[in-house]
Amino acid sequence: MPSLRWLEKYRPHKLPFRRHVTRASVALIYRGANVREGELFFIQRARREGDPWSGDMAFPGGRLERSDTSSRHTAMRETLEETGLDLFQQGEYQSRLSDLLTRHHSRWSPMVVTPHVFAWRGDNVMSLNHEAQRGIWIPLAYLGNPAHRSTLQIRTPLGRMTFPCCRYQGYCIWGLSYSMLQEFLRKRGEGRQVALAGGS
Hints:
Blueprint: E1 22-32, E2 38-45, E3 57-58, E4 61-63, H1 71-83, H2 87-90, E5 91-96, E6 100-103, E7 110-120, E8 132-139, H3 140-143, E9 149-156, E10 159-168, E11 171-174, H4 175-198
């Protein structure tokens, strides 16, 4: 599996106030023979009453704890806890993506989420905890195909709102996960063009 080190050429957007609010991080885990043929890992959140994102598709991750040495460490720890995928032993770190601003699950206060990209070197064995209903690898070729983009209507306190999404076998990727996915796909596409130009 080739490296995605081309991601390092891009400077992600870092929110300047991120150290003054609650922070979280997630892991975008990639596997495959090359950057054109590969899969990206998602979890489906467990269905829980009171959780606004209950049952949604997401990347594994969670909030930073005092014991975490960095947001990257948080993404790795949370992935291991939620899925059993050990990025400490079987993941190769690639890069980070841009910070995103969201809110706490239970209250309207800001939270900054930092995505980190890893190449997976392990097997298919998962051990999901109570936070994840299932784990699924989705082909990047499918995710990058504009024909599979759609929209999702959500009822909010401000009324019905329409969000872009990607649908796959009954699953719907939207919101922050969709934004992270699109940034990853853009950089992947740009990286492929750089590689092709360098080889011509």
